[in-house]
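batch_manifest entry 22 of 60
target: TonB-dependent receptor
source organism: Rheinheimera riviphila
requested by: lab member K.T.
priority: normal
notes from requester: please return tokens only, no post-processing; we will run our own comparison against the previous entry in this batch. if the run fails, retry once and flag.
--- input ---
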Amino acid sequence: MQTQCFFTTGAALPKSFRLSLVVACLALSQPLQAAASAEEPTIEPALESNIERLSVQGKKLDSDTEPTAATVQLLSVAGLLNDPLSAVFSLPGVVYADGDYGGAPAVRGSSPGDNAFLIDGLPAGYLFHIFGNSILNENLLQDFQLHPAAFGAEYGNATGGVFAAKLRNPRQQDIGGIADLSFMQSGLLIEGAVTETQAFYTSYRQSNLQYFFKKGDELDDDVTLYQPPTSSDYQARYLWQPNEQHQFTLTAAGARDEARANIAKNAEQGRTDPDTIGDAYIHTRFDSQLAQYQYQLPGVYQLQLSLQQLDDQQQTGFGAGQFIRYQDKTRTVQLLNQWQYHLDHQLHFGVETQQRQLDYRFDVVPYYCTDHQPDCFAQRGERIQDFGDINYRSDSVFVTEKWQLSPAWNWQLGVRLEQQDYQQRVLPQGEKQRLVLPRSQLSFAATDQLELLLKAGRYSRFGDIDSVLPKTGNPELLQPKADHLAFGANYQLNNHWSLSAETYLKKLSRLPLALTEQDADQAKHYSNDTSGKAYGVELLLRKTPESKTAGDFDGWASLSWSKADRTDERRQITTEYYLDTPLIANLVLNYQLSERWKLGGRLTVRSGAKYSAIVGSKPNPYNPGYRVAVYGEHNAETLPLYHRLDLQADYDSTLFGLPATYSYAILNVLNRRNISGYYLMAGKEDQAQSYQIQADENIGIFPSIGIKVKF
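--- output ---
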């Protein structure tokens, strides 16, 4: 489950509070984000351009013990200190939804909540810590893929993109490991063989930021730190492969984030929004256990059976006793099959069932609002309390036929069937929601180097939980839907250079609309009366590494153009979406200076996001003596141009006779204070202007040093 904000206040949060705590968006966090999808046993490397041929490959014990070439390249992006998931922000069409640190990824005009986040084909609790670094040890990642649009029938519960991470298998080696240390975090990995057919690894990492603060530190004007922000994560896997046809794995993974501070009345946030005065805290964690069995008859058949238990918990609090607590338990059974029943035909099919139990309790002042409302403060409700225990089930089946029509033509035709009984469980007259989601892909190998692709599909996902809970939302809401269409071309210039282009169209429907006093059914809080669309074109030029010799280089350059909007179907008003970012350019380069030194750089330049300008202020009707912002035309203004340059140097050496790599990075070398929004801030008593508009700036230049030692 990806942690996100809801019940947000009308004013944007000041950078000083958000970054010092990142107390999960003022501890206003969404308690449930359903993201369940399937991942097929055989996966193509991300970012690679290859012309598909039908085949089912057999695997040996060490076949998935090393990362793919594309993943290795993602690991080397400058400024990320080997964090591959953060590298997705350097790919075309991906932007931060809320600043450089702690912001969730948004893909091709969709919201972050439209994405699915998977580990080994099954839902992850969340993939990013509250400071933006990922929860996965980079030394354990075998493959990472981003499917930005028109993905296959094996993926469900997503209308935006699919982020699919795959952990590698333990290596057959003497027991050893890797220790790493940086400003951000430290970690330890132990790995090795138990017998000739069994191996294991275990990894634990913990943040180091808490060592730079202590209890009672004043982070900003009258913001006192009670508990330094800390995060940790772990992964462990045990593998048994008795022969080349059978494989059993047991995997455990989890993460934890927590922080606590006090906002005084005279703090920036307290002067602006008195509802936030008091203690603010977040404690969030997830733990998952996964058992998988794989059977393979080389060249003919593959089977994968997965059993997962996921426990996701969160406690957040703020202001005068407001809080949100929940525990979300999910049990998933998934069966995937791949059958080469004819030389030119391959059948992929799978089934999945999920049983979810959500226990929740909250005491909040709600804001009935979406990410496409000009003024959330106008949607404020009276303080409410509630608790409950909701059990519901979702089931899905998919079938995909891959047909080699000719040596040049390949056609994939699939369908996904989904149903869930949430409404049946919470409404007296509720019924199951059932969906039929067709998918198709046609590829043409025009030459040995050029491949053309046409993809289309229909998609859906479970709605945001705050919009469908009985007391904070409308349980009658239907699931949002999306239709994707994409046309692309991949051209392999030579063994190391490739060029790809893709144009896409996304049509979104049944999105939630927050109801206002102008609506006769305002008491329902939300309806399915928002639609939207996103379209654009992307170019990607990629160079893979040739060798680890001086003078070799690799990387990629990408350019994206896009448009995104949302329409209020009740009033027939169309406005640009706040994540509408027309132009995005990325340049990633790695240069092998010598046998030991490797240099890297990453440059991102993009248009500013849309926002609604603050044109004035008015009295706060709920808190006399305070004022709130008055906004102009919805998303009519554009933030300043965004650009950021990161540099990194890696040096291979030894430490106490052990192989070691030293990393030196400078983030935001140009010290660009990129602006992610504006907010209304009350001045101090001695200031002539009682209220002023402040820019919410991202972090400036930031150096970092890291070391990784193998033993």
